[in-house]
Amino acid sequence: MAGKDNLNLGGDAVEVEEKSGGKGKLIIILVAVVVLLGGGAGAFFFLSGGDSAEGEEAVEEVVEEAPKVPLYLDVEKLLVNLEHGGRTRYVQAEMQLMAYKQEAVDQATRDMPAIRDALITLFSQQDFAALKTIEGKDKLRADALVAVNKSLGLAPADGIQKIYFENFVLQ
User: Fold this and answer.
1) What was the pLDDT predicted at 16?
2) Distance from CA of residue 125 to its chain's centroid?
3) Nearest to residue 136, comparing CAs of 125, 127, 147, 148?
4) Spatial separation of the C-alpha atoms in residues 167 and 75, rounded to whole Å
5) pTM reported for the whole predicted model
6) Residue 50 pLDDT greater than 80, yes or no
7) What is the separation of C-alpha 18 from the centre of its chain, rounded to a whole number of angstroms?
8) For residues 82 and 128, is the Cβ–Cβ distance under 8 A?
9) What is the pLDDT of residues 66-114, one digit of tens each?
10) DSSP state letter for 89
11) Segments in 49-167 forming alpha helices (H)
């Protein structure tokens, strides 16, 4: 009878199951220990981090990367005449001042006559031929930024950050 040969009446099969069950448990325990050690090492790495000064610098860097909201202030149209080649030429410009601090925008609004005066004086000293080039316009924009912050008495970090030309006409 084939049935007697296949019956498990003895302990051979049980021993095989216990041995394989024991190896499976051992593997599971080893994997769990490795995972716990790896997690513990990772937690130690992140939590130990080094000096408190390094940690403070990291926090400061994150704060500095926070997006800043730009604030804009319109400068009314400027019309300035220049002498070029014995002829009178004109520069017409419309600009926006941009700052990140409301205090700078408030002060610029209050001191707009001084800003316009500084810009008109600066524009009237320009070389008409140079203003036709991109480089000339970029230099004028940089010089205008310095003149605006100087007329406000503010450091560049606390004052106007950029000047944008909305309209720039040479005639």
Assistant:
1) 46
2) 36
3) 127
4) 11
5) 0.59
6) no
7) 62
8) yes
9) 678 999 999 999 999 988 888 999 999 999 999 999 999 999 999 999 9
10) E
11) 52-64, 102-110, 112-124, 128-131, 134-152
**Structural tokens at position 115:** 């800003």
Query: What single letter denotes the amino acid at residue 150?
Result: K
Give 144-158 as a DSSP string.
HHHHHHHHHT--TTT
Buried b (16+ CB within 10 A) or exposed e, 80-96: bebeeeeeebebebebe
- 3-class SS of residue 117: helix
In this structure, what token pair is assigned to residue 29? Answer: 């325990």
Please provide the distance, in angstroms rounded to a whole number, between the alpha carbons at the two ends of the chain.
Answer: 115
Helix axes 102-110, 112-124, angle to 10 degrees: 80
The contacts of residue 158 (CB under 8 Å, 6+ apart) are 101, 103, 104
The letter for the amino acid at 86 is G
- Alpha carbon distance 65, 59 (integer Å): 10
CA 62-154-125 angle, 5° bins: 120
> What is d(CA 150, CA 165) in angstroms, rounded to the nearest whole number?
19
